[in-house]
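Exercise 3.2. Students should predict the tertiary structure of the chain below and write it as structure tokens, then compare their answer with the key that follows.

Predict this chain's 3D structure.
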Amino acid sequence: MIIDREKVKNAFAQYAGQYDLSDVKVKLKADHTYRVAAMCDAISDSLGLDQEDRDIAWLCGMLHDIGRFEQLRRYHTFQDGKSCNHAALSADILFIDGKIRDYIVDSSEDRMIEKAIRLHNVYQLPQMTDREYLFATILRDADKIDILRVNCETPITEIYDLPMEAFRDSAISPEVMEDVRAHRNVLRTHSKTGIDFILGHISFVFGLVYKESFRQVKAQGYLAQLLAFRSDNPQTVKDLEEVRRIVEDYMEERLRG
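Answer key:
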């Protein structure tokens, strides 16, 4: 499979340009897309993939959130629970509406690329072939790494459509603490408070697969920033200290492994 990266970038720019790029939320997703694609490259390089597979991983990064723009236009939110499954919408736009052909002519890897995009936000991957797992996990790692950045560089009040008091005053739900203690990604249905949403993204570290992903997270420092969140709730302050110890110990163990 031959992937023309310039063609892909031009097609993506044309697609995203249909939406209001002066809107901070639209621009956020466009910028996120380019960074995730670049992170797919970094992870692919660390695995020694050949150029063809490296290009496929990069393409998955470029296309994984294509549905976010339409999600925002239709529902005025990025919260899937209040709108639609953005990963499924991305896959539908590409592979049901046929937009994938705007990016690549060769359809030989369509099934695998669709699976990686459609499943990039699921709690747990289903059974799949080794090759499908490779591209799905590269994309999922790259996406999680950049979401940590987004949560630091974009006001959380804009991301979650909640006032700051909802984060500073709230308590961590017991189910969320149980997930963190068990080194699990926080289940979405467990998140009920503002601080729960932040913990949900911190817990992304437990779902990372590749050593390069852990190196990138540590080097960028965004996880450390999220872990340093200042709460005005005394019990939350205490719980966050425990979360920091758990996450930092887990990171060091995975970096040594």
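Discussion points: The chain has a mean pLDDT of 96. Residues 163-257 form one domain.
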